[in-house]
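// run 5 | inverse folding | seed 20
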């Protein structure tokens, strides 16, 4: 690997994996002071902040026993994150992030107004916890942080000072020389408490849910190991977050989380960008401290990390064409690099979900434990305070680096990241009884979640034994699914003499493209090896599967690339099926998850090319088939019939 690492970039990446621009475009007005809403939220006495916050409603939302899907964002950064500030997001904080998510217009770091066409149902702001808010608040003259003696070293008086300050902060982490003045309990607590107060201010039970959350930003040797930490209750949180300054090891984060739970603070972690982890997100033999993986390690991971991001701005972590050569839809928004290292690639094995789910089952057979029964969400990782979900209205994710179509199409590589390959943000779909912190958190904990590429496809999956083929004709089929089976994220117990059946249903996003197909992806393990098969189970337009392969032909594309347009003259509004596994072996561990594909539509880069009057770039596909992925349902055989292979699945998977 040929690495080209700038001095500041190296410091920043070693500090914890922050994205960093080598060249900073100053804000259009040169301002570094806070907007009024951020200043009011980040400063003042607790009494002042409480008075400014709206009164909490006493009206409780109506609970739906069949559960509703709520779409939300679990990963967004504001000017309180060091890297966001240094790339030009200097004035918008958590307040604006929630305002934007609720449908209000706010200012993009590029200087123009942005607004969501449809508000989200929930959001957690996940600023990097390492020196969170210090650079931003030290330059806000109304903030108490700006009055500290150490603040003099954080002041930005001219554009080049931004890099100087960032180098100072990031370098302290890289050299393991923490700045004690910025880690004093009262200093850290002041920012943390403001974060909590802002989340509480915008929490509207039944309408919009906010979470107290943050990102733990570990990237040892430039390999992504980041986790976003979410709390169930804003009244039950620690005095300060656990950061990568405390430890770079996820095992230490989990131990801290275990301690929080014992103290009554319920929380969970969501890992992200496994595709950029260089193979260490899903280890098989030793943990991140070099110790042999055992049952205790597996259980601790399961207890603390029920979810992971399957798709976000920096790529998709479902699978890779090299891992799944027989999956024609595996090549979706693939990115592979080490954060901060030019001309780098991330190792495949140990970096993708489908392989990890299968390897986990092989570990169960060989060693008696499975650490990789995790669920999925989609998310963003935008550093703009705002997030782009729609291909036709993409405005980047990294402040002034990619704020314009011209900048995005220029072919830049920043800190190892090829800007052209960035994706629109994913969304988390959560099936919960009501739009409240408790209900949504509990759904995430039980993994009744799915991820999308940014569209709002509705998807349901139930697994059971003997679902009637006409079950979907019953208007109460959801209740049947819960009563007689398990939803996504569940475990199917063995039942002698039967193959599992699955109820799958998908409804298109009303504001987006029609649906192409529903697929069920099955993975299983046998004799220490892992296998996979992709089944088309429901599709549009009366297409006929190939009699030899069973694969359904590609749906017709209606995309006009030159004009960046498409029509919904093909595809379906709704697809559904009761499907039985035709190759079920009751002695083998297996998992099943659903992938729903839309018909082809123009990619954001094609829309940008149209806006500029140029040809779409050839480095990326001009079209995409946006999609949704569910959390799997797992099947485990009875102990007397299980495959007792003795070899754990290793680096090379056997692919069917």
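// decoded
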């Amino acid at each position: 690997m040929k690495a080209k690492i700038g001095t500041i970039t190296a410091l920043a990446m070693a500090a914890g994996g922050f994205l960093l621009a080598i060249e900073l475009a100053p804000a259009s007005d040169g301002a570094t002071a806070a907007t009024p809403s951020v200043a009011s939220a980040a400063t003042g006495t607790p009494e002042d902040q409480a008075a400014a916050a709206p009164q909490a409603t006493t009206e409780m939302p109506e609970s739906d026993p069949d559960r509703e899907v709520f779409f939300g964002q679990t990963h967004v950064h504001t000017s309180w994150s060091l890297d966001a500030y240094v790339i030009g997001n200097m004035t918008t904080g958590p307040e604006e992030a929630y305002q934007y998510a609720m449908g209000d217009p706010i200012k993009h770091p590029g200087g123009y107004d942005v607004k969501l066409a449809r508000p989200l149902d929930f959001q957690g702001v996940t600023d990097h916890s390492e020196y969170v808010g210090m650079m931003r608040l030290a330059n806000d003259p109304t903030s108490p942080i700006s009055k500290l003696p150490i603040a003099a070293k954080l002041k930005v008086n001219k554009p080049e000072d931004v890099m100087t300050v960032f180098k100072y902060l990031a370098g302290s982490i890289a050299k393991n020389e923490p700045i004690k003045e910025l880690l004093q309990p009262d200093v850290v607590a002041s920012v943390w408490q403001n974060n909590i107060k802002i989340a509480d201010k915008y929490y509207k039970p039944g309408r919009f849910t906010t979470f107290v959350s943050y990102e733990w930003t570990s990237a040892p040797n430039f390999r992504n190991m980041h986790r976003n930490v979410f709390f169930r209750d804003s009244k039950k949180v620690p005095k300060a977050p656990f950061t990568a300054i405390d430890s770079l090891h996820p095992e230490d984060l989990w131990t801290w989380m275990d301690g929080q739970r014992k103290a009554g603070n319920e929380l969970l972690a969501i890992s992200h960008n496994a595709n950029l982890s260089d193979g260490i997100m899903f280890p098989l033999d030793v943990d991140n401290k070099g110790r042999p993986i055992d049952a205790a390690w597996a259980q601790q991971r399961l207890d603390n990390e029920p979810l992971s991001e399957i798709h976000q701005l920096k790529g998709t972590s479902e699978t890779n064409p090299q891992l799944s050569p027989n999956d024609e839809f595996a090549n979706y928004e693939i990115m592979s690099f080490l954060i901060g290292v030019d001309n780098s690639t991330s190792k495949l094995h140990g970096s993708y979900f489908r392989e990890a789910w299968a390897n986990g089952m092989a570990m169960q057979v060989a060693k008696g434990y499975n650490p990789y029964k995790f669920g999925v969400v989609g998310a963003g990782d935008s550093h703009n305070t705002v997030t782009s979900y729609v291909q036709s209205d993409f405005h980047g994710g990294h402040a002034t680096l990619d704020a314009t179509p011209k900048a995005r199409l220029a072919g830049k590589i920043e800190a190892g990241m090829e800007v052209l390959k960035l994706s629109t943000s994913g969304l988390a779909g959560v099936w919960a009884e009501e739009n409240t912190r408790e209900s949504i958190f509990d759904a995430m904990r039980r993994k009744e979640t799915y991820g999308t590429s940014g569209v709002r496809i509705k998807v349901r999956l139930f697994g059971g034994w003997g679902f009637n083929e006409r079950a979907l004709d019953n208007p109460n089929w959801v209740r049947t699914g819960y009563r007689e089976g398990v939803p996504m994220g569940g475990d199917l117990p063995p039942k002698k003499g039967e193959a599992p059946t699955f109820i799958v249903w998908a409804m298109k996003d009303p504001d987006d493209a029609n649906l192409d197909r529903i697929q069920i992806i099955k993975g299983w393990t046998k004799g220490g090896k892992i296998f996979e098969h992709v089944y088309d189970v429901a599709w549009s337009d009366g297409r006929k599967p190939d009699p030899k392969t069973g694969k359904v032909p590609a749906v017709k594309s209606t995309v006009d690339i030159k004009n960046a347009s498409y029509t919904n003259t093909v595809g379906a509004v709704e697809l559904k099926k009761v499907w039985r596994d035709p190759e079920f072996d009751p002695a083998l561990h297996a998992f099943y998850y659903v992938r729903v594909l839309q018909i082809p539509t123009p990619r954001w880069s094609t829309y940008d090319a149209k806006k500029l009057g140029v040809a779409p770039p050839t480095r990326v596909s001009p079209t995409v088939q946006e999609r949704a992925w569910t959390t799997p349902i797992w099947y485990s055989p009875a102990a007397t019939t299980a495959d007792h292979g003795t070899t754990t699945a290793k680096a090379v998977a056997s692919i069917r």
